[in-house]
Amino acid sequence: MRGDRIIYVLQVLGGRESEYRQVYKGEDTVFQLFGLQWNTDYRLRVFVCRRCADTTQELCGSFSPSTHFSPRRAVSSLSVDTGSVPTSSSKKLTDEQFASIIVVGVASLSIFIAYLLQLLI
C-alpha cells in the first residue's frame, strides 16, 4: 500500500441540475471552483481513490456527506459622511442575550408578585 497514489474526486450539484458532475480529479487536496452563480444553492461531495502501484486498478471509497453552500454577493461599501446621513442600526440579539432577558423578566415578575402577596397577607 505504500507508494500508492491517492486521487481525490470532487463533484458538484448546483442550480437546477439533478445529478452531480465531476469538477476535479487529482492528487491536490485544495481546489478552487470558478464560474459559480450568485445566490444559487450548491452541494459538494468528495471521494478518494487509491491507484495501486503494481496494477492500473483504482480502489475508490464511498462519497463523503454532501456539504451545502450558496455564494452571496458582497455588499459594496461606499464612503459616506455619517454626520450628514442618518443611520438606523438594527442589532439582532443572540440566543444568550435573549435568554438573559427572559430570566431577568421572570425574576422581576416573581419578586413583584411576592411583594404584592406580602402586602396582602
TrEMBL record:
Family matches, as Gene3D superfamilies: Immunoglobulins
Cited InterPro entries: FN3_sf, Ig-like_fold
Transmembrane regions listed in the UniProt entry: 98-117
SUPFAM superfamilies: Fibronectin type III
Keywords linked to the UniProt accession: Membrane, Transmembrane, Transmembrane helix
Stated name of the protein: Fibronectin type III domain-containing protein 3B
Organism: Silurus asotus
